[in-house]
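Forum: Protein Structure Q&A
Topic: Joint prediction for protein chains with partners

I've read a bunch of threads here and the consensus seems to be that you should model interacting components together rather than docking separate models afterwards. I'd like to see that in practice. Below is the full input, 1180 residues plus whatever partners are listed. Could one of the regulars post the assembled result?
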Amino acid sequence: MKNHRQAFQQDNKNRGRLLISCPDQPGIVAAVSQFLANHQANIIESSQYSTNPEGGDFFIRIEFECPDIESKKPLLQEEFWKIAQSFSMEWTLSFVHDLRKAAIFVSKELHCLRELLLEWENGDLMMDIPLVISNHPDAKDFVESFGIPFVHIPANKNNRQEAEQQQLKLLEEYNIDIIILARYMQILTPTFVKAYSEKIINIHHSFLPAFVGANPYARAFERGVKIIGATSHYVTNDLDEGPIIEQDIKRVNHRDQVEDLKKNGRIIERSVLVRAVKWHIDDRIIVYDNKTIIF
Amino acid sequence: MKNHRQAFQQDNKNRGRLLISCPDQPGIVAAVSQFLANHQANIIESSQYSTNPEGGDFFIRIEFECPDIESKKPLLQEEFWKIAQSFSMEWTLSFVHDLRKAAIFVSKELHCLRELLLEWENGDLMMDIPLVISNHPDAKDFVESFGIPFVHIPANKNNRQEAEQQQLKLLEEYNIDIIILARYMQILTPTFVKAYSEKIINIHHSFLPAFVGANPYARAFERGVKIIGATSHYVTNDLDEGPIIEQDIKRVNHRDQVEDLKKNGRIIERSVLVRAVKWHIDDRIIVYDNKTIIF
Amino acid sequence: MKNHRQAFQQDNKNRGRLLISCPDQPGIVAAVSQFLANHQANIIESSQYSTNPEGGDFFIRIEFECPDIESKKPLLQEEFWKIAQSFSMEWTLSFVHDLRKAAIFVSKELHCLRELLLEWENGDLMMDIPLVISNHPDAKDFVESFGIPFVHIPANKNNRQEAEQQQLKLLEEYNIDIIILARYMQILTPTFVKAYSEKIINIHHSFLPAFVGANPYARAFERGVKIIGATSHYVTNDLDEGPIIEQDIKRVNHRDQVEDLKKNGRIIERSVLVRAVKWHIDDRIIVYDNKTIIF
Amino acid sequence: MKNHRQAFQQDNKNRGRLLISCPDQPGIVAAVSQFLANHQANIIESSQYSTNPEGGDFFIRIEFECPDIESKKPLLQEEFWKIAQSFSMEWTLSFVHDLRKAAIFVSKELHCLRELLLEWENGDLMMDIPLVISNHPDAKDFVESFGIPFVHIPANKNNRQEAEQQQLKLLEEYNIDIIILARYMQILTPTFVKAYSEKIINIHHSFLPAFVGANPYARAFERGVKIIGATSHYVTNDLDEGPIIEQDIKRVNHRDQVEDLKKNGRIIERSVLVRAVKWHIDDRIIVYDNKTIIF
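Posted by a regular:
Agreed with the consensus. Here's the joint model:
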């Protein structure tokens, strides 16, 4: 893993990304691209979306290569701030070699955690994973075999607040940027959600908005659906109502019992969650109007 | 079309199908297969499903080739009746060369109707289509170009009963076996539904149970789903709650507006409906516990 | 259809598109976006791809809204020419209200032709279709029912050159921009292909590069594949070796005979071809190194 | 794992399966089902396929529940032998609680091995895995963490025969029933293949028959395909020409370099291989005419 990471950071030592939302008007791309050209930055990839050319909103993701970006960071931030002001932009400028720090939360079902750690070890998820938190001890050995600290914080309906306080303290201590709920079966309080707004990614084991809430596979079986699904979304205070990032499905048939739906579902849950996390750490997602724009 | 049909009927002049449900117990297959062997019938295709070997239910679909089946029809029916009695079977024995008679109901959106008629003309839907009924005149020319009678019966919330009486009279007159709601935008009364129980196939333009009811695409857009769907089901008196026959999906993204979802949806609606109809006329469907077994 | 078209042209009367390829270097986007800003054009959608930031190639598609574009057309062309020179660009500037003129070539299998004409009539394929050419008379009635001229030019191995001369004369006469081979079962000569380079779109009834050439379904059956496919590509002089635009697949199983593969295949052939044509007329395709970039 | 296995064996202690191929004729199902009824066996699942009712071949898979099957094993085998004789059947009668013994062969790419072992540990692949053999030492720790012996047998072009002799000795010693090539990058000799005919399952990293042989992803990239695939098949002496068991695909686009195709490919390779193995150990596969019938 270390080798993958170092090679990636070396390959991307001059790579930056801009993610911008603002009211649409002529001249935005010209201003941004002129700014980049002025700093000898070459645009490598760019995607844009406008809700409506007149009076709508404008969104862009730009990935660029800029020589000696390390030394120019403060300057770039400062100068872009002026452009951002004049176009009323919400924006982030990130540097690809600064890896995100992700905390994974898990309960007893480990398939999503496993997929995340294996993809991470392969070098297919470029982020740091400073810790895994669980309300059960089951994942301890597996997590520690990757050299990642595992923290067991028993959590349930009755001790939610205390458990979250412990969690928040750890998240702060480790400078966590993104929380991945890898089948973490506890509801988070509004305080927690607010502290990591648009930074908590959940995997729900149904094709939302079908089967919001508990036991989606049992209810899918009951309804006799021919296709099951999984949905990854940002967590908000409305249960399973946050902005959807990615969904996928799998065919089932009358022979499949609830257990079979669960087995089949695991295969899509894990890949949907990994895709959502990948897009998040690649700065490909903008949340807009409780939906996601995926560049 | 006539040539396709005649060739098909000739090819299948000795072909029969048994569709059976009953409480499971040892010896069912032996009894049925012995019965067929006694009549020199050769089993061509057979699929079986049991919910539970002890105290569960048993389902089977058997397709067989039986020399001189035409002359043996009454005998087969009569003799099978005895076996059916002894195992408490619900059953149908059908003869493949006796084509089903389908009535198609349509409103203003014609893509499903078109697909049905084109597939029918290709010889890919082996049934008779004695009439098309619509509450709008739009489809008239297209339907009549296939030599199929088109009946315009204005129907809406206010005249539902009278309209249905006209419809029922026509359905009886034409000996209709199956009613296909090809985006027919009227709700049917319990009287109508009861008269054609498990014989009315609808296409709903969402991935049920998500977006039951009106305007599913607008609601899918609002929710920001990444995948849209279509569902074909038998009509019951609970709106969009009948046994699901088939579903399919299509990826969409943030660029897709409601109109785009509709356009993309049409492509899956039409193919899902055609598959459902095909399975119905091929005697591949058994309804069980508000679900379908598809053999 | 006329209403769809007029509404579309009205909605897009100020809409333009730039499609650019050139050696990559810093400042390209800045120059192009400054040019558009100078003409009060607002960029609505933009996608970019670079093969390699250093010494690689750069590709961009920009869709923009420019007030009074009609009166500015010559000016835009002329001024952009200067930018294009300085960056060694290959480029096209197109105006969305100027619809492409497509000729459809067809033989005896009509499913792709049907899909194209129905999608066109729905308003889902915004182009003009001045004529359909066939080496068989079968499609005549269907084509003419849309008010489109149908020309029967018998073509086979022996009269290829004369047939093509007739075809080329018609294509020129009708100012055809794009030729759609909707299961046209004749090979085109190098002369013909050269005259419409990157403007002839074919649908091949296999998942290329599997089953290049004749009888792909029979060969797929022979090999026992579990998935069949269809491929749309630009025609070059190497049979079925041109740049692939789009592919799709469908599951099959051991019960499917060659005829069933053909039936299933038709469903994907038609949708793959329609998508490829749509992307072409929306200026979403750049051919590069015998591959396609699809924006 | 042990708990899963014991529970499975207990649940299936009376479960048997018949897999039969023979020339088609009337009366086969009657004879087989009568035989089962005579032994108080209840047919739980049954699927049948005939290539042609007249002069064709007949295939059936029957799963049944038979009280005290353990004590009846020799009797069932002996009595069925008589029926088999009279219909010229090829057949296997297997008992579900007798788990298959699989050996996994692997080289340096470990994603397929990982998936197999994790699915196995989950209880989703009901078989024994007495050993893993590799021509590289990389997988040692991972394999041994599951308590499975790992044997490193360096193998390459030059020592193929000696390496295979060591392997064959181990396979015999451990009574191996099935060999899974989980990205094992060595070609097997005809002697080896013959010894385990229709018992060696390979995963090829392309959508066969496209890209037979080495470096399929590099060649897929070169050709500019829009969809990549993976194929699981039984190994024969014709490279990548054995009976296809399962295939699956994944969309790619012009941004995907060879490395990206490999990453995306791993996701389908592993699930395709697991499905193929599952069907094999569930006795769902009959090889016929270099194709597979999957029940």
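The longest helix of chain A spans residues 258-281.
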